[in-house]
Specification:
The complex is a heterodimer of chains A (about 375) and B (about 325).
Chain A: H1 8-37, H2 40-65, H3 73-92, H4 99-103, H5 119-143, H6 148-168, H7 170-173, E1 184-185, E2 188-189, H8 193-219, H9 221-237, H10 243-269, H11 279-292, H12 298-317, H13 322-336, H14 340-359, H15 364-373
Antiparallel strand pairs in A: 1-2
Helix pairs in contact in A: 1-8, 2-8, 2-10, 2-11, 2-12, 3-5, 3-10, 5-10, 8-10, 11-12, 11-14, 12-13, 12-14
Chain B: H1 17-20, H2 41-48, H3 56-60, E1 74-85, E2 88-99, E3 103-107, H4 114-122, E4 129-134, E5 137-138, H5 144-149, E6 152-155, H6 167-175, H7 190-202, H8 218-230, E7 236-240, H9 248-264, E8 269-273, H10 277-283, E9 286-291, E10 294-299, H11 301-306, H12 308-315
Parallel strand pairs in B: 3-8, 3-9, 6-7, 7-8
Antiparallel strand pairs in B: 1-2, 1-4, 4-5, 9-10
Helix pairs in contact in B: 6-7, 6-8
Classes of the chains: A mainly alpha (about 375), B alpha/beta (about 325).
Chain lengths: ~375, ~325
């Protein structure tokens, strides 16, 4: 076809390649420069925030693009974290039992723990456990055409149930304390700076790859279908799509990404407990996305970093008041910037552009008007 | 009111059973296909003429793939469709047949059941009783997207497009429905891209292709939605009030669009629900009038307009000179 070269896809290869290069460059810069300028403590903090940024991306895919407001992503994050934590507990226990099992009176390793002695299996479970849970739940919910706020309520109930189960099954899960006192991850001692630097680099790379993968997905026609589901799910059905299947797929993908983030979180922070996966952390995750700007991919990353930086900064300076500041930040951003930080900036830029165009001789609106007035060759 | 029903099939032999019996030999009747043996000649004849035998269910279950042998020229058959909401009967044993390539208009006063009829065809509403046959397939138990995949496209009464997507993205979603979601992640085939470009031109929205659909005017949204259906190349196109709220100029453009569409796809069956009588007159060959969920009259625009029952319930009261 002659006109092929002027089609958007043809010219997209350029920007797409440039974007890949930009993301890769940013990641490399972060990996090289940040360990030099930040203290070990700050770097560890940033590494934690970056794992949160990955979760925020996962939530944005489900909520910002597909309209599924999940209030239970802490569970998927937690499952990924626990899957790796189980392996690390077994590493730390050498050939004995993990410490908390001994305290609970267990004599023998429970059967379902045995496969987690394999590192490969544990890594697989980091993705499979959240994905399977999301698939099962998603099929039930979306096949039954449960939408909107009811979906949110069910996912919130999931967060509650999951924490109750993990707290209640103390001999198997470590109960309220969760799992901590790790020594090594795949043989690398966690106390070593080099291990932590490696994990930081890995987190940066995973964040970059997740960003690019979602960028590719949301830029493609599939991304338009997700937005169509968000805006007019019922209409899409009459065009021949089954929104239920698409939503299950997106929910599963989102849960798997959250699980990976959890697995990156646990060796760097050194603990995973039900407090990281319940209702409150799940809602916090959504707030990162809301503050940063849902429906954009850079927004959730910024939101996760800004909110958590504010949280830790304020809690250091004002230990008694920081929660009020945090609350004010949420309310303020939702009231003043309903589209989040990125959405607010984008709107400001657009307004500036329009003002500049309005003063230009042939403005875009005028051109549009002229185009609209062109008849459709009504020759009947 | 069923005594005032007029014959449903606009064939010259309507009502004269004997004269149309020889045509039976050309029907792909029971046993003629792949061992689909459970309809009798009488039932097939009745089915072909939109008539219903005492046990309509017996006609329906046929071969393993659920196909009922019908006249190959019949695109859609509604048999004895009854729909009621909370005891209110919206469609009352309605029987309707649409032929291949036919453009049919459906008119009737408010509450006649026109939109409900479209809901039944597209699977949005399940009838309490009766059968919808699309190219011989019973649509009962099919989900909305299955029915759409089969080639039934519908424009809704209020134009419904995806507002935050551009005009072109809207079209791309529509054209990609057959391939499905997974393949939509891949690069769009050039056949589809050409089809989209062609159709955007057909509906006259090239200049707006990169604009968000939410910014379009009401009329442009109507055209976009029609374009999204056209690009799917449906076998049966259902248009619910395509010119409602349009200016006269916009209406004329829609008429031109529909004319062009019919020329390009003479095989496509189009069913249009419309209130705007001027529009109906511009396009209509066959008009079906619904009233209180029943078929009141059917024929050419002229016949229908001169039907005293129609004048009474629909056009009536001082508007006798509608022609």
């Amino acid at each position: 076809m002659l006109n092929e070269k002027e089609e958007p896809q043809g010219s997209l290869a350029g920007p797409a390649a440039r974007e890949c290069a930009l993301v890769a460059g940013t990641c490399l810069l972060m990996i090289v420069v940040l360990p030099l300028v930040l203290s070990e403590f700050r770097l560890a903090l940033l590494a934690k925030f970056l794992t949160f940024a990955i979760v925020a991306l996962a939530i944005d895919l489900a909520w910002g693009y597909t309209g599924m407001l999940s209030l239970g992503h802490g569970v998927f994050f937690g499952l990924g974290a626990y899957a790796l934590a189980m392996h690390m507990k077994l590493e730390a226990a050498k050939d004995g039992l993990p410490d908390f099992m001994g305290w609970s009176g267990l004599r023998e390793l429970p059967g379902f723990w045995v496969p987690f002695e394999s590192g490969a299996f544990s890594l697989l479970m980091v993705i499979v456990l959240p994905a399977v849970l999301a698939a099962g739940l998603g099929i039930l919910i979306f096949r039954g055409r449960v939408q909107g706020v009811y979906f949110s309520i069910i996912t919130q109930a999931l967060a509650l149930i999951a924490t109750l189960v993990f707290v209640g099954q103390q001999p198997y899960t470590g109960g309220t304390n969760g799992m901590t006192n790790f020594s090594t991850v795949f043989g690398f001692p966690l106390i070593e700076t080099s291990t932590q630097l490696g994990l930081f680099a890995l987190t940066v790379v995973v964040l970059g790859l997740t960003y690019l993968a979602l960028r590719f997905l949301t830029r493609s026609r599939a991304g338009a279908i997700l937005v169509a589901i968000r805006d007019q799910e019922d209409r899409l059905r009459f065009f021949g799509y089954d929104p239920a299947l698409v939503k299950v797929a997106v929910f599963v993908l989102s849960a798997a990404i959250a699980g990976i983030a959890g697995a990156l979180f646990v060796p760097q922070v050194g603990i995973i407990s039900p407090a990281n996966m319940g209702i409150v952390p799940s809602i916090e995750m959504v707030i990162w996305v809301a503050v940063g700007g849902r429906g954009t991919l850079i927004g959730p990353i910024i939101g996760a970093l800004v909110v958590n930086a504010a949280k830790s900064g304020l809690s250091e300076s004002f230990p008694d008041f920081w929660q009020y500041f945090l609350g004010a930040l949420f309310v303020g951003s939702v009231v003043l910037f309903p589209d989040g930080i990125v959405g607010g900036i984008a709107r400001g830029v657009r307004r500036l552009k329009r003002m500049r165009e309005a003063s230009a001789p042939e403005s875009a609106p005028a051109r549009e008007l002229a185009a609209a007035g062109r008849p459709l060759e009504a020759e009947s | 009111m069923s005594d005032v029903r007029v014959p449903q099939t606009p064939s010259p032999s309507q009502g004269e059973g004997l004269s149309s019996l020889p045509a039976m030999s050309s029907l792909p009747l029971a046993g003629g296909g792949q061992g689909r043996g459970s309809i009798t000649a009488a039932e097939a004849w009745a089915a072909r003429h939109g008539l219903t035998l005492p046990t309509p269910d017996a006609i329906v279950d046929v071969s393993s793939d659920g196909r009922v042998e019908t006249d190959p020229d019949t695109r859609l058959e509604l048999r004895e469709i009854t729909v009621s909401f909370d005891g209110l009967t919206v469609l009352d044993h309605l029987t309707l047949t649409l032929a291949r390539g036919e453009m049919r208009f459906l008119i009737g006063p408010n509450g006649a059941g026109k939109t409900t009829l479209l809901d039944v065809i597209t699977g949005k509403t399940k009838p309490r009783s009766g059968t919808v046959l699309f190219e011989g397939y019973d649509l009962a138990g099919w989900q909305e997207h299955d029915i759409a995949q089969r080639g039934i496209g519908r424009k809704f009464q209020t134009p419904t497009v995806f507002p935050s997507l551009t005009v072109r993205q809207n079209m791309e979603i529509a054209v990609g429905a057959r391939a499905g979601f997974i393949r939509s992640m891949r690069r769009m085939p050039s056949v589809e891209r050409d089809l989209v470009a062609e159709t955007v031109q057909l509906i006259g929205l090239e200049a707006r292709a990169t604009q968000r659909a939410g910014q379009l005017s009401h009329g442009e949204k109507q055209w976009l939605e029609i374009g999204m259906l056209v690009v799917q190349e449906p076998k049966l196109l259902l248009l619910d009030e395509p010119v409602a709220g349009l200016t006269r100029g916009e209406r004329d453009r829609t008429v031109a669009l529909l004319h062009r569409m019919q020329e390009a796809h003479p095989d496509r069956t189009i069913l249009i629900v419309e209130h705007d009588m001027a529009f109906v007159r511009q396009l209509a060959k066959t008009v079906t009038v619904l009233h209180l969920g029943r078929l009141l009259s059917e024929g050419t625009m002229e016949e229908v307009q001169n039907d005293p029952r129609v004048i009474e319930v629909y056009l009536g009261h001082g508007k006798r000179k509608v022609a």
